[in-house]
Amino acid sequence: MGSTERRERQRAEVRAAILRMARDMVVREGFEALTMRKLAEAIEYSPAAIYLHFENRDAIARALCLQGFEELLARLEPATREPVAARRLRALADAYVGFGLEQPETYRLLFMTDPKYTTDIFRSAEDAGGQTFQVLVRLVQDLQAQGAVSTSLAPLPLAEVLWAGLHGVVSLKLTCPIFPASSTDTLVETFTALCARIPTTP
Amino acid sequence: MGSTERRERQRAEVRAAILRMARDMVVREGFEALTMRKLAEAIEYSPAAIYLHFENRDAIARALCLQGFEELLARLEPATREPVAARRLRALADAYVGFGLEQPETYRLLFMTDPKYTTDIFRSAEDAGGQTFQVLVRLVQDLQAQGAVSTSLAPLPLAEVLWAGLHGVVSLKLTCPIFPASSTDTLVETFTALCARIPTTP
DNA sequence: GTCTATAGGCTGATAGAC
DNA sequence: GTCTATCAGCCTATAGAC
Fold first, then answer.
1. What is the per-residue pLDDT across A61-87, written as a single tens digit (0 to 9) for each?
2. B141-174 burial, b if ≥16 CB within 10 A, otherwise e?
3. Do A119 and B156 touch (CB under 8 A)?
4. Does the beta carbon of B195 lie under 8 angstroms from any beta carbon of chain A?
5. What CA–CA distance (Å, rounded) separates B56 from B50?
6. In chain A, what are the domains?
């Protein structure tokens, strides 16, 4: 009797379809434009059907955030393998900013919409938020070990400031298309240069 | 016959009352919660009356942005008078971040809501946005002249990165109350230390 | 100028039939 | 499980009476 399994599978498929479509809609039109009705219509179900898989709209947002953050992590991953800290800084910065600008609406949902969602990412500790932050802490420690950053500054706030700086560049570019007149590349270049000077090889 | 003047005055008073109440509501509950109905009720007029003074909700938002940005400018002004560039950097940073955290909903409206509003601030060139930016450019030039920032970086992108960094700190603190675990003061301290080393008096 | 009334939409969420 | 129908509310904006 594999009928329970089949039902489970079908159920999971509907859930996945809801999420896939929700993601599409958010990417295209932003989270505000994601309504239960439009979502239902898009997957060709009635609005009520969605509530069998998600408690409410917030639950969908949370699932999308989790997914979005995993995409961000995946995007950063290759850069984490660069051994020279100063180069790793630049690679991570490029990857982070690239993600934000290429997926503006996802980025907005993750970091610029509701404190609730953003907080969730960082509260689920060891996964999403914590992992990414650890990447930055390690980077800062290596930068200091390799003489690119003053050791008189504490690594934790340094890593936080690093994140804040990148977030500032991304979010300003997103909410104010005309202000930072410099290209994204120039901004990242300038920011990373400020953060870490290239160590003089002795 | 001063009756036209009286009418003009009354008209201006109603307009001012609308803006005052709108500001209050935004400060208390955020821009999203500002609706024409609630606004009308609060000033004890009918919704239709508001449309005699403002074309639509967006026009109110623009007026509030202008006002908010002037408040920000006023808040920065004292710091601009500090002659030692490194100290001015710190004073400006404190003032900027202080404004953002004390008036979170105003800050959100100015810089984190709709690109349209934020863009307006910077397009009206010589006033609001441009003025503030000039303050930062002058700061960077002085920092370079006083040996606190490398002259190998261009002043314009440097000033933009400075703004982005401060914006990053404020907006992360606003949208993610738990993430930057460090205190605002520590973050600003760390950020300004990264931006400018204290020049060694020769 | 200010009102009432209303058009013409939208929303999240749920009860109850099948 | 899925639907239809609907509740109960919100919104911006405007027409037309006073």
1. 999 999 999 999 999 999 999 999 999
2. bbbbeebbbeeebebbbbbbbbbbbbbbbbbbbb
3. no
4. yes
5. 8
6. 1-54 (1.10.10), 62-195 (1.10.357.10)
